[in-house]
Fold this sequence. Notes:
The protein is mainly α.
Amino acid sequence: MSDAKEFYSQIGAKMEKMRKDTPAMTTGFGTLFSKVMKDGAISLREKELVALGIAIAVNCAPCIRAHVKKCLETGSNKEQILEAASVAVVMGGGPAYMHVIEVMDALEALGQ
């Protein structure tokens, strides 16, 4: 737990340094993030649970910590977060960018 506490106490300053040192990258990612991570066909709360599951599946500890916090901030409770984590364990991996094509193909095949 001390690693998580350290992460939360230092992440703001580290992110600010990254924004200063890599403005093009952080601006580009920030634009994508702000366009996607808002209420849409699914709620921001649901999107944060999905993001958490992916973070777990790809073994990204900083991502896990960030999205657990965001899950709580968007209204998920501990039980919901742990259930999302359980789904990630069942999947044993994470979706890759190119697999979105598979999702789109399946939706089309199902008349959507």
